[in-house]
Write a structure and sequence with these properties.
single chain, two-stranded antiparallel sheet
Length: 345
Amino acid sequence: MPGCQCNHGSGAEAVDQADLRSRLTANRYPGYRTALRMDAFIYQYSVGGLIFVIGLVYAGKQGYIGLSGGRLRNLLLLVGGLLVFMALQGYLQYSSMETTEPVEYQGGAERKDTLGQPIDYGIMVAYFLAILAVGIYFGRRQKTIKDFFFGGQRFSWWLVAFSMMATLVGSYRFVKYSRVAYEYGLSSSQTYLNDWFLMPLLIFGWLPIFYFSRITSVPEYFQRRFGPSVRLCATILILLYLIGYVGVNLYTMGTAFNILLGWKVLGHEERLDARIVNYADDFVICCRGTAQEAMVAMRVMMQKLKLTVNETKTHVCRLPDESFDLVGYTIGRCYSPRLFSGICG
């Protein structure tokens, strides 16, 4: 812990010094900061614009865009979208922003035993029931691989688009972007404004390959294009990515679940000197001499949240005399061949 405090202090000092140097430079050279902003903006849209033009040329050769009919409509949509995002980013970057004065907190410090309102829990229950009903209803129609991967090609494009976005959005996005949006406002969306540079290549280059070749995955395309060895390499890389992606989602889901439990908000952590260690929906309460009180507090919270406790996994364990399992690991007394002694871990 002392090391963490030391590193945190050094980082804060470095940030302050960097900010001081930036302010001194801006004061001496008034055009310095504007020049840096312009360079970044011009660099971004120079490189991105080049990729965008390459995509337009490719789409034109394939006959998807042109100067008449539907091809002209496609061209106007692509260029118009780029201009809209360019104008928005320019406004967010160059317009004068005002900082309001801080407002003193007017609310009370009273802690409520119940988190959320009945309408909140009603929406959650209705959502899961609706998802379950849709899955059961359409799952009965899936007979072939085509039905599983393509939905039998019975759905409109807008429904497929919504389904893809719902699959893409994970728990970490709600945790990350809500915090970033609260700190920086609309400007936090600038990270996604660059996606439009790739739109011509994506819509008129990559998607037609998937659609007309009827492939079901990216590795399958690499096999057809380059061979089985390249498909194996692509599969390994995608699996490594998914391991990290799923891990981040589980971690952020556990973080949100930890807040939802209200262990800190309701004062149980400070009152019982107990810490919660959780991974997704599995958690352990670590405490000294207050295990029974922590168990009672946990059960009361779970009842108020309308959540069920797994009785087969829930028990009081005294370390290191006893042991317990958590996400595949056994925590308890272990033997260290290097130290020739028992350790707790």
